[in-house]
């Protein structure tokens, strides 16, 4: 993947659904983690993603390993009684 492809997230507009794979500090036993949700902000410093739990997660540019736009979340099915 070229450096330009890795920075494609800079052209995204808020409102799209994204998944961002981020790197964590070396001393963390789980080196990678994903953030999935609606993009609420993007700038040269990174992205902010609103997750379905209602948390807004800021991912700094230096921690973004991979990122892509994903389809909207499927509609939730009603619980069976």
Describe this structure in words.
With 81 residues, this protein is mostly beta strands. It has a single domain (3-69), classed as SH3 type barrels (Roll). It has one helix and five strands, in the order αβββββ. The chain has one helix spanning 3-6; strands spanning 17-23, 32-43, 46-50, 56-60, 64-69. The protein has a five-stranded antiparallel β-sheet with strand order 4-3-2-1-5, with no helix packed on it. The longest helix is centred in the first third of the chain and has 4 residues, at 3-6. The protein starts with a helix and ends in a 12-residue tail after the last strand.
- H/I helix tally: 1
CATH topology: SH3 type barrels
Q: Name the helix and strand elements from N-terminus to C-terminus, one letter apiece.
A: HEEEEE
Q: What proportion of the residues form beta strands (DSSP E)?
A: 35-45%
Mean residue pLDDT:
87
Q: Helix fraction?
A: under 10%
Domain Histone acetyltransferase Rv0428c-like SH3: 14-65
Pfam families: SH3_Rv0428c
Protein name: Histone acetyltransferase Rv0428c-like SH3 domain-containing protein
Short description:
By secondary structure, the chain is mostly beta strands. Helices cover 5% and strands 43% of the residues. A five-stranded antiparallel beta sheet has the order 4-3-2-1-5, with no helix packed on it.
């Amino acid at each position: 993947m070229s450096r330009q492809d890795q920075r494609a997230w800079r052209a995204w507009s808020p409102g799209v659904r994204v998944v961002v794979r981020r790197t964590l500090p070396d001393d963390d036993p789980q080196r990678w983690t994903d953030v999935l949700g609606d993009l609420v902000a993007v700038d040269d410093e990174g992205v902010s993603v609103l997750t379905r739990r209602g948390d807004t997660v800021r991912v700094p540019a230096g921690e973004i390993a991979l990122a892509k736009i994903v389809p909207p979340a499927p509609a939730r099915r009603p619980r069976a009684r």
